[in-house]
Amino acid sequence: MTRTLAPDAAGITEAAGLLAKGELVAFPTETVYGLGGDARSDTAVARIFQAKGRPSFNPLIVHLPDLAAVETVARVSPRARDLAAAFWPGPLTLVLPVIEGTVSPLVTAGLPTVAVRVPAHPLAQALLRAFGGPVAAPSANPSGRVSPTRADHVLEGLGGRIAAVLDGGPCAVGLESTILIADPEPILLRPGGLPVEALEAALGMKLATAGDGDKPTAPGQLASHYAPEAAVRLNATSAAPGEVLVGFGPVPGALTLSETGDLVEAAARLFQMLREADSMAGPGGRIAFAPLPEKGLGRAINDRLRRAAAPRP
Ligand code: TXA
Ligand code: MG
């Protein structure tokens, strides 16, 4: 059962308490409703992907109440600081260098950067302050469906799959935030609720768009960011000599994604296991992964593993 929480002090306290327990709470922002989970918790973030049925681990936007809070998870350059002063709170997301260890690697999809945003909606503000930590939140719709701008849209798509929705009525902007890589040169990753002209005026320059020239259109396509040092073999049921086997369910390994075959646990551990297996394998080493079912979160995990195993450029 998904509970609908009223937009009052009791509803906000309830919502913050659920987030603190690692549960998922949909909440209104000025752009669209977000599906929020504790960005520090691997399990909460894995549950976000599970609830949305996303077939791949796109990195998620981290929501914080103000610039000071943003500085606890990301390194804020002078340019980013200027943009924050001009447009936060509001529908601008900045991609900045992450401070390692401050958010789950599932949030950043293992990238060295994190997307951060300070939403303007008073309920989002109140929730973020009551919770007191970073909240990862993609739009609160099943993967491939349109973004929700009302609490009943959220319930239509995700009812029964999340703990609660904080009902703040319709969203004002109705379009996701504009996403910008701030440095070393600004690159527009996604046009959105903040007009590009406003950004260009503040920056005093025309913006390059991801997809221009050889810029990648989505970070998920940066295969190199996903690759461990070691060579990766998939669908292994035992370790070849010299290989570090990462098991799953009935296939035991030196490490395991989940002994019980739990896909939420496997997703939550994925990036940590890639790292650990990589350091165990050492220079020129090899890693093998046990097979995972191609269903639910298994699809996203397998997508990530196929990228890790792809031939290097
Ligand atoms: O308006 C919005 O931004 C809504 C509300 C809920 O705040 N959120 C939203 O989140 O649209 P989401 O997860 O659907 O958008 C995430 C997108 C990714 O697909 C990716 O393009 C970009 O943000 N992104 C996130 N982290 C990134 C990173 N480290 N580097 C580059 N792009 C990143
Ligand atoms: Mg979306």
Report on this model:
This protein is of the alpha/beta class and 313 residues long. The protein has eleven helices and 15 strands. An eleven-stranded mixed beta sheet has the order 1-8-2-3-7-4-6-5-9-10-11, sandwiched between helices. Strand 2 and strand 3 (33-38) form a beta hairpin. Helix 1 crosses helix 6 (122-131). The longest helix is centred in the C-terminal third of the chain and has 19 residues, at 263-281. The protein is globular. The chain starts with a strand and ends with a helix. The site of magnesium ion has 3 residues, from loops. Residues 138-139, 147 line the site of magnesium ion.
Short description:
33% of the residues lie in helices and 18% in strands. It contains 11 helices and 15 strands.
**Overall geometric form:** globular
Order of helices and strands: EHEEHEHHEHEHEHEEEHEHEEEHEH
Secondary structure class reads alpha/beta
Which percent range describes the beta-strand content? Answer: 15-25%
Tally of DSSP β-strands = 15
Radius of gyration: 20 Å
Q: Which ions, cofactors or small ligands are bound in this entry?
A: threonylcarbamoyladenylate, magnesium ion
Stretches where pLDDT is under 50 for at least 5 consecutive residues are 213-217, 220-225
Q: Major sheet, described briefly?
A: 11 strands, mixed
Distance between the termini: 47 Å
